[in-house]
Structure formats: C-alpha cells, structure tokens
Amino acid sequence: NSFSKTEDTASDSLEAAKNATNKKEKLADQVMQNPQVLASLQERLDNTSLTPSSYIETFPKAVIRRIDALKKLQVKCAHIEAKFYEEVHDLERKYAALYQPLFDKRREFINGEAEPTDAESEWHSENEDEEKLAGDLKNAVVIDEKAEETNVKGIPDFWFTIFRNVDMLSELVQEYDEPILKHLQDIKVKFSEPGQPMSFSLEFHFGPNDYFSNSVLTKTYKMKSEPDKTDPFSFEGPEIVDCEG
After folding, report:
1. CA distances from 189 to 56, 92, 186, 195 (A)
2. Model pLDDT for residues 82-134, shown as the tens digit of each residue
3. Where are the transmembrane segments (predicted)?
4. Are the CB atoms for 185 and 159 separated by under 8 Å?
5. What pTM value is reported for the model?
C-alpha cells in the first residue's frame, strides 16, 4: 500500500543520508591528516585573525579618540618614571658617600692594613648552627697566635670567595679567572657627578701579580633613562647603552 511504500522510501532516504554523512566524516579525517591542508588552513586563520591595531580600528571613532588620549597619558607617565630613576641615581650617589668610610674600613681589615678593635670584632650570632660550628672549630684546633699573626694577613681570598659563592657572580667566573681573583683586594662603585650623563664605574683594585701591571681595572657603564621616541611604551627603567674598559 501507499503507506508502506512511503515508509520504505523514508527508510532508504535515511540510510542514504547516513552513508553520505559517514563518507563526509571519512573524507574530513583524511583531509585533516594531510599536513599541507592543515598548513593552508592555519595560514587562512592567521590572515583572518585581528591584530590589536586592527581590532581597535573596529571601534567607533569616539572610542578610538579616548584610547589615543590614554596613550598620551601613558607616555607622560613614562617620562615621569624616567625622572624618578634619575633621582634614584642621585640618591645612590649621595648614599655611596655615606657608605664609603665603612667600605674603606672593610678594605683595611680584608687586606691586613688594620686590625679591628675588641668592640669592632664583637659579634653575637643568632644562628645556633653557626655558633656550634665556631665552638667545634675552637675546641678542635689549637691556635698558635704568634704563628697566626706572622703567617696570616687580613682575610685571605676574601673577594675570590665572594665571587665563588654568590650565585649571580659565580655564573660569570671561569676557571681561568680564579687565579687572578685571588689577588683582588677591593671593588669600588662610582656614580657620575651631578649634571653629567647617567653612568657608573666599577673599579677592581688588585695587589701585585704576574697577570697585568695595572693595579686598578675600570669598567664604565653609560646609561639612558628616557623613553624611546619610537616605542615609549616599552620603557622599563634605565638601560645600559654603552660600556668602556
């Protein structure tokens, strides 16, 4: 009858649709497994994606105008920040002068140019392990004070030990640097004078050695603390632009 024929036709149509769907899925799987097809598809997606600038261009003109105003404010902030770092440099120079007498005294003790008084050498450690170690060493070693005064001057290999044990510095030290570092007696930092371009110098003071005749090696770093005119938003503070020495 007509109802049965209609039912058969509907069933055939449904089966045909399923077969067509399966074929499409298989074809899609084969296509997606093809690297060239994937690369082409990715290229199309990249070309159609919006960049920040093109995204902003989709805004109404009134919104773009406000965004431009924010950019101008941000540039002004960058210039204020640059001024802040200039004043920080001035503060570093000021306090370097206050630190210097202490650093001079440190140099004297390290190099055996002076001996600390009892008051200067009095130190109470809050580290129990450190105190225990000091006590163990004191009990285990009998010190001949006269021999010590004769043979040991200052604090041997002080700066060499610093460079070997401070992570930030140890990464810079190569094996061939170690012998000369044992002759290093002092390190000084000097900041540029007021009104001069921002810079600082590192002075490495060495004792007599077989490696070079100069007693002082100097490295000067020139700095810039102002936003780049072509990219003011990248400003993150002073940057080293050149070095000498």
Report:
1. 48, 10, 10, 18
2. 999 999 999 999 999 999 999 999 999 999 999 999 999 988 877 666 666 55
3. none
4. yes
5. 0.65
Cα–Cα nearest to 187, from 112, 113, 104, 109: 104
The SS3 assignment for 184 reads strand
Distance CA 215, CA 108 (A): 17
Q: Which residues of 39-57 are buried (b: 16+ CB within 10 A; e: fewer)?
A: eeeeeeeeeeeeeeeeeee
Q: Output DSSP code: residue 225.
A: -
Tell me if 85 sits within 8 A of 238, measured CB to CB.
yes
Q: Which residue has the tokens 């994937």?
A: 38
The CA distance from 201 to 197, in Å, is: 13
